[in-house]
Amino acid sequence: MIYPKKINANKSEGIIITLLILSVLTAILLTIINKLTTPNIAWAAIANSGIIYIWVVVWYSVKKNINIAGHVLIQSIAIALLTIFIDYKIGYIGWSLRMAIPIIIIVANSTMLILTIISYKKYLKYAVYQLIILIFSILPQVAISEQIMKNSVLGAVSIGISAINLLITMLLSFKDIKEIVIRKFHM
Question: Does this model's pTM top 0.85?
C-alpha cells in the first residue's frame, strides 16, 4: 500500500515562522514609512491591524479545520472593505487602495502558499481561490490606470505575487489537472 507523502512538520513550522517574521518586518517598515511621510495620519496602524487580523483568521481556521482557503478569501475581502470604509470616513486619502489592500492581498497570498504547501493533494482546490485573489489584486490597479489615484508600487507587487503564487499552485497540480482532463475528455 502506498501512502501519500506527508510534509515534514518542522518544514511547515519553519515556513510559518518565516512568514510571521516577514509580517512583523512589514509592519515595522509600514510604521517607519508612516512616521516619515505622513505622521499626522495613522494609516500604518490600520494596515498593521489588517495584517494581525489575517494572522488571527489563519490560526483560527487551522484550529477549526474548516475550508481554510475560503475562510481566508472571505476574511481578506471583509478586511479590505473595512479599510476602504475607514479611508472613506477619514476623508478618502487613497491609502486603502494604494497600500492596505495590496498588503492584505500579499498576506492572503502568503497564507494560500502555506496552505498549498502543507495540504497534500488539495492544490487544485486552492488554485480556484488563488485565481479569485489574483482578480481581486487587479482591481486597485484598474482604479490606478483609470487615473482615479496615483501609481501604486505595492499594487503592482501584489499582482506579481498573486500571479507567481497561482503559477506555483498550477505547477504543483499539473499532474492532477492532466488526470482530470484525461478522465473528462476520455483521452
Answer: no
9-24 burial, b at 16+ Cβ within 10 Å, e below that, comes to: eeeeeebbeebeeebe
Q: What are phi and psi of 38, to 5 degrees?
A: -135, 75
**Tens digit of each residue's pLDDT (9 = 90 or more) over 42-66:** 778 878 877 887 787 677 666 666 6
Q: 158: pLDDT confidence band, cut at 50, 70 and 90?
A: confident
Domain housing 136: 9-185
Tally of structural domains, the chain: 1
Across 84-101, b (16+ Cβ under 10 Å) vs e yields: bebbeeeeeebbbbbbbb
Q: In this structure, is residue 1 part of a structural domain? A: no
